[in-house]
């Protein structure tokens, strides 16, 4: 069962967490293995697409698609972030290849489609709904007949339910309405119908995401999609093209929008654009360009790419910066992470969570939770008005005095706030860095009253 801060966490299904937990069990807990599942998923997606394009459209198309995908910053970001989106992109890419096989008459592709759809659903739940929507669109556009379904379709559908149902039924049996209320109510219905967690965006948000996350390839995207629908030789890519349109349309309609929601679109659009670009290069070679002309063309393309990357660097950094529920970019967490790693050998009390105290904007608990491997509670000196969209995973502080007693507690705090400590509180530093201090905090035990004073 997924957990956050040692409490049940109902936001996502557990496939990525099961994989990461397996890595931790075998190799130990570290940043590398925390990110490994998404990184390996990104590598696998690239290899699968390269092989798919090479077999159907040649090495030029395969290398073009791979270069485009591996130079798309939005894709690289999700591959290194240790989140669910890279694994989702892998499973959805496999499902699309299965659908391509079905479209070409190989009905065994249904097993690949439904099996990969099940893995996608167990990775990110309702976000994978774009796969059956793509299936419906393809079936309607191509006017599929019943013979394209048959036994393999239902065998694959059965495989889907065998994979997906057990965990969901077990969670519903154990937690009941608490699970369904958050898993379906909050993180599906409410996320789709309203802008939650402070993510206020406009309908054209994903146009901005593509412009800053995929320069300059985004300029070729519309032309490559049009070419797929116009050119009969590219019919096998129409599944990928329809998927691109479906996923961009679907997540534009969804009211809560985040840049990584459209991460699965990058492999599909990179493959389509790679084949289109290979066609342009083939026509250029057929025009008997000289070697010097080809070199100049490559140099010009590299210059355009470098300029586009430089121009979009700042908005891309802002786009992929961690944000709190009120939209404020969170503080840099590298220093407290390094401090916690450095102080991991310190003997600390086992009772109570690690207290985290910082100046506004309050630091999220993610880094402290990972490196301390214990519960974490954000604190502040006095109660304050929470932001309109309180998000318990990143912003859920309580007054510091409510957490203190005579037993020492472990505190990770910014130096700037320590001067505000009340006089009746003691703090003993154990380790420090430029801006952060880790130590023990407590209220001293008051001395016993003198018997004569009591009389």
Write a compact overview of the structure shown.
With 455 residues, the protein is an alpha/beta fold.
Q: Radius of gyration over alpha carbons?
A: 26 Å
Give the count of structural domains: 2
Q: What amount of the residues lies in strands? A: 5-15%
Q: How would you name the oligomeric state of the polypeptide chains in this document?
A: single chain
Spatial ordering of strands, largest sheet:
5-4-3-6-8-7
Number of helices: 20
The helix-strand sequence is EEHHHHHHHHHHHHHHHHEHEEHEHEEH
What is the distance, rounded to the nearest whole angstrom, between the alpha carbons of the first and last residues?
59 Å
Can you give the mean pLDDT? 86
Number of strands: 8
Structural class call reads alpha/beta
The residue fraction in helices comes out at 55-70%
């Amino acid at each position: 069962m997924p957990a956050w801060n040692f409490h049940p966490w109902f936001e996502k299904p557990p496939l990525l967490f099961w994989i990461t937990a397996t890595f931790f069990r075998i190799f130990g807990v570290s940043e590398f293995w925390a990110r490994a599942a998404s990184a390996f998923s990104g590598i696998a997606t690239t290899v699968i697409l390269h092989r798919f394009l090479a077999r159907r459209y040649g090495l030029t198309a395969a290398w073009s698609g791979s270069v485009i995908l591996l130079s798309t910053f939005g894709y690289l970001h999700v591959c290194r972030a240790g989140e669910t989106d890279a694994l989702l992109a892998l499973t959805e890419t496999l499902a699309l290849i299965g659908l391509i096989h079905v479209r070409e008459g190989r009905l065994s592709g249904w097993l690949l489609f439904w099996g990969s759809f099940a893995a996608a659903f167990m990775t990110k739940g309702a976000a994978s709904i774009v796969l059956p929507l793509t299936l419906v669109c393809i079936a309607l556009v191509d006017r599929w007949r019943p013979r394209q379904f048959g036994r393999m379709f239902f065998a694959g559908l059965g495989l889907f339910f065998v994979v997906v149902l057990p965990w969901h039924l077990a969670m519903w049996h154990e937690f009941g309405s608490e699970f369904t209320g958050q898993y379906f109510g909050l993180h599906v219905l409410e996320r789709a119908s309203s802008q939650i967690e402070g993510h206020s965006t406009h309908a054209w948000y994903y146009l901005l995401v593509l412009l800053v996350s995929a320069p300059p390839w985004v300029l070729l995207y519309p032309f490559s999609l049009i070419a797929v629908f116009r050119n009969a030789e590219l019919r096998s890519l129409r599944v990928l093209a329809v998927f691109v349109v479906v996923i961009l349309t679907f997540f534009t309609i969804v009211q809560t929008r985040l840049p990584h929601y459209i991460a699965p679109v990058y492999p599909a659009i990179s493959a389509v654009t790679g084949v289109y670009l290979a066609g342009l290069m083939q026509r250029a070679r057929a025009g008997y360009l000289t070697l010097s002309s080809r070199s100049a063309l490559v140099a010009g393309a590299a210059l355009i790419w470098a300029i586009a990357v430089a121009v979009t660097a700042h908005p891309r950094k802002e786009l992929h910066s961690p944000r709190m529920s009120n939209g404020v970019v969170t503080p840099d967490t590298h220093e407290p992470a390094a401090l916690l790693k450095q102080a991991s050998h310190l003997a600390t009390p086992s009772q109570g969570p690690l207290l985290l105290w910082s100046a506004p904007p309050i630091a999220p608990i993610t880094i402290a939770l990972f490196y301390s491997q214990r519960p974490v509670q954000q604190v502040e000196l006095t109660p304050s008005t929470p932001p309109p969209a309180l998000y318990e995973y990143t912003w859920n502080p309580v007054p510091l005095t409510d957490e203190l007693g005579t037993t020492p507690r472990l505190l990770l705090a910014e130096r700037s706030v320590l001067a505000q400590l009340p006089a009746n509180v003691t703090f003993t530093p154990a380790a420090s860095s430029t801006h952060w201090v880790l130590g023990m905090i407590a209220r001293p035990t008051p001395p016993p009253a003198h018997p004569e004073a009591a009389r």
